[in-house]
Amino acid sequence: MVFVYISDEIKGVLERIGGMCANAASILNLCMEGFIKNKVNLVDDAKKTSQTIRNEGTELRKLLSGKATDSDVNKELIKSLLSVVNSIEMAITGLDSIIQHVRFKASEGILFSDKAVSEIRHLFKETLDILKTSADTVMTKNTVLRKYVNDKYTNLNEAVEAYAEEHEERLIKGLCQPQASPIYLNIVDAIMTVVWHVKQALNRLFESK
């Protein structure tokens, strides 16, 4: 466990942070469906949820900043929680990039090779698992779940490196459409941005006392 004792107010903050992670998972799920089905409306729904999370982040920063002025507050904890909220919002920036590129793919009807689709689906599913686990980790302060997320990040990073090499081979062999290549690469890069910042958010949370 991270905290020996926390107030009901801080528990409420943690619940809201966990909710941000859960909503981030909803965004990614919509992106995955939009990517597979080439449905623009699903991606547009994801964008609305993204703004909801950003609004929540703004409210939490105001709440925490105000709490920091209390004489009896644990200022290091408040600082850590602010860092956690900021890291999650940076993960949302990665999700916004995914939304942008998936929407372009869907609206333009750009096709990916079967291998590229399989790779993106794998990355989406693994990242979805990370986001859902992160929501649980924030709520339970479970060190096993934290390690799970960190290990998942390492595994995804290795997979992405392998995918990059395979993608270059497909381009050389003409198996990948030139217009699909930058979309593929941007989605992969954005996915890793999401996972990295979520990992950082959890690590920062577990540094809190």
Short description:
By secondary structure, this protein is mainly α. The protein has helices spanning 8-37, 40-67, 75-108, 114-140, 143-173, 181-206.
Tell me about the biggest sheet? none
- Helix-strand category: mainly alpha
Broad shape: elongated
Give the C-level CATH assignment.
Mainly Alpha
Looking at the overall shape, the CATH architecture is Up-down Bundle
Average pLDDT confidence is 91
Outline the low-pLDDT stretches. none
Element-by-element helix/strand order: HHHHHH
Count of discrete structural domains? 1
Counting H and I runs of at least 4 residues, what is the number of helices? Answer: 6
CATH superfamily: Phosphate transport system protein phou homolog 2, domain 2
